[in-house]
Amino acid sequence: MTEIREQVLQLLLAGMMAGLFSLLADRVNDLTTGKPASEEQRREWILAGSCIPVIFLCLLFRSDQAPLIPHLGFIPLTAALLYARVSNAFILTLLTAIGSLLLAPGLDRVAVLIDSGVLLAPAALVLSSRFKQGKLAFKLTVFSVLILAQFVLHYITVLTAGDTSDSFSLSEVPIYLGSALFSVLTACLISFMIERALNNRKLRSDLEQTTVRLQLESGKLKAYLEYMPSAAAILDRQGNIIHINTTMLEYYRLRIPELHKEDIVGVHFSTLAESDRLQELASSFDKALQGERDTKISKSGPYIYLSSISPIYEPDGEIMEVLYIMQDMTELEMLRSEMGNVERLSLVGQMAAGITHEIRNPMAVVRGFLQLMREKSPVSLDHYYRIVMEELDRANGIINDFLSLAQNRIVEKEDSHLHSLVQELVPLLWADANLRGQSIELKLDDSVPNLYLNPKEIKQLILNLARNGMEAMGDKGMLTILTRTVGEYVELEVRDTGSGIPGEQMGKLFEPFYTTKTKGTGLGLSLCKRIVDRHHGTIAVHSDEGAGTSFVVRLRRLADYPAAMSELQDSKEA
């Protein structure tokens, strides 16, 4: 019975390593400080922390009454030797040998060292490299063979000693065989627990690394969304907004200026959508949930957007979220419109160049003969001659507009005052106004400085804008011409009290050949735009239906006029 109690106690003590290793494997990360340790260093700490106390407990509770029952501290030692590096294995072996000699002072020292498992250390270290790379079955086999070898060495040592060989009985053989068998099972349990703990650590480490990578990728994705020029929002499957970027926030602030991101996240997209686009967005969202990508061009006020709603898939193929992107296409559409205007102007130039000499000369001949025929015809026909000659003059004016619009010539500018050009046109404008029963009001700011202009073109600009305003008004209308200084610019405004311009026509006013007049050519405002562009200015139109229209021309004032004149002189000499 002594042998059995000794064996059970030693097995329990040796088996403690499995529990200690599992416990420390979960806690060692919390115990490390300073520079992060590698996975191999953590494994060494875990082995040392679970192996050393078990070895010394086995030595401490060893009984001298059962010499054939070895202390099983060599089981955790062997496990540590198989899993540790050579340097750490040497330290563990040395500590075990010292502990065995100190805790068994009355025994033969050679027997004590053999009993401690130190002699198997070289074999365990030789097998360590292959052991670590092998599968679990191979590891269990190697571990079991080393444990059985230690038992063989122990029995040989004990049985060859004279004081114990006489006390050996065959009836005790099953006990010793059972001791060896249970020791092997304990070793297998320890190895299995070590492998399980190491695998769990590896899985947890992989999970932590994957989590970090996902967080980094998520951060990158949010950064991409945040700084991309397009407006972007991420919606969940219920249509609630999960994330928006600053561009999308600015889009919503066009309608709700006091809006913040915190007010939007978690809100259903239908809450913030325009009422006229709600059905369209809901349809696109439903398509995205079915795996379809929907792209449309939509208009919101003066802005044109290319919107795209796409599904975001999980790794298993399920639709996780929906990505909503809006690209402001207003400027691009304006560029396309400008390109269309350039193409039209190019066509106008080709037409004008072809028809100038072919039509103008015959028209001059026809007009001359009409004047001769008018002198020789009765007075009753004067009305018809006048109509024909006016139409010829109108056709000649259209040809002149063609030429002015199509020519891409360098404009010669000079020191001019805007008020002088306006005053030169006042008699002509008053004559037109009196014929229509209209009035003209001048509001000229005395602070307006000299500008760098082409007088002929600026006069044509003012005349075109003024006559357009007169044609838009009825009797007793008021045409107002204003000038003012705004910072670095001088503004010229021509305002009428006509019926105004419908909103759908505002974007096409400066397109060549676009007109709302029955006898218009659609070249007047295009010509005005071309003149302003050649003076590096801007022209804008503001209109309220039923309240009138105003055209505002903005020209940059010269901060250093002498330098500009010097630059002009140099360009002429070149």
TrEMBL record:
Q: Where are the transmembrane segments?
A: 7-25, 45-61, 82-104, 110-128, 140-161, 173-194
Under catalytic activity, the entry for this protein gives: ATP + protein L-histidine = ADP + protein N-phospho-L-histidine
Q: What class of enzyme is it?
A: transferase
Under Pfam families, the record lists: HATPase_c, HisKA, PAS_4
Residue ranges constituting the PAS domain according to the UniProt record:
217-292
Looking at the record, the residues that make up the Histidine kinase domain are 354-559
Start and end residues of each PAC domain: 289-341
State its Enzyme Commission number(s): 2.7.13.3
Q: Which UniProt keywords apply?
A: ATP-binding, Kinase, Membrane, Nucleotide-binding, Phosphoprotein, Transferase, Transmembrane, Transmembrane helix, Two-component regulatory system
Could you give a GO molecular-function term held by this entry?
ATP binding
* UniProt name for this protein: histidine kinase
